Fold:
Amino acid sequence: MRASSMVRQGTDNFDSLRFLAALAVLVSHSFTLVYGHESGYEPLLKLSRGQTTLGTAAVLVFFVISGYLITGSFDRDQRPLRFFTARTLRIYPALLVCLLLSALVLGPSLTSLSLRDYFVAPETLWYVPANLSLHWIQLDLPGVFSGNQFASVNYSLWTLQYEAAMYLAVLGLGLWRLLTREVAIVVLALALIASWRWLGGDGGFWSIFGSAFAAGATLYLWRHRVPLNGRLAGAALVILMLSLVSGGFRLAFATAGAYLVIYVARGSAIRLPNFARHGDLSYGIYIYAFPVEQTVVKLLGASAHWYWVTALSAPIVLVLALLSWHSVENPALALKRALSHDPLVGSIGNRTRSVERP
Structure:
């Protein structure tokens, strides 16, 4: 297949990939929430011999895409306040609404405590501010889902702190004029070494997610030099599939897998259905899926199976994601676009490049 540049005008598959990744997280969580653990049930965990779940792989797709797009965002507009405001408006408005609905609607409806005890409990009072910090993540609400396999109200939120940290890393490197091709290669190499060395615990998550994000950033910065080639994509797919059965999946994903993600997102050979024609629903799906699935598990009780939880949760989550996009996220992005024309938004270097839309 003829090679083409990683730079391409027009439509792309980024939104569709994120949509599918968000749904994959929903499906993956249904196994854990129903059976209490993934081993023996989650298909990708079995196939990969315990290396990864479908949900983890989907989150890595998110980080590769974020690395590519966020690096591109700073590359096109290097005003730090503008960059910080854009990232804040993308994450926080929808997250705040989700947290408020969880604490003030879902919690009181399902708690095993009296309403008075629920609302005066420290966990209830701190639930919204703790999670908005993206550091002191609080997964539980008092008396909510206490009879489920897991008591977490929204376990998915724990990954947001890593995402936000990667945004700040791009901003810091950019301000120091270190967001270059050479530095990106060094950062990616160090992240891969760290991912290989520390596969467990919090340090493991920083290196695993960091290597995926760094891979996306590197592919963006090298986009004029790295071709979109069907043969390369095929080789990357083979490497990724072999890693599932032979080991080394996390390293393979942050190299061959990252190339494959951007190939699908940017290449002209593959055209995914336009799942974003009604809005970019991926973030809404991601933040609402877990509490909805937990509620379905609670209501189904002993008759809960992963396929029922998935089938019943998905339509509800899609409706919530649509409402989130049209009522919260898109208006916030409109505010971001309005601020981009504000002369009071600060600039450093004020060097904006005209490059392709990411």
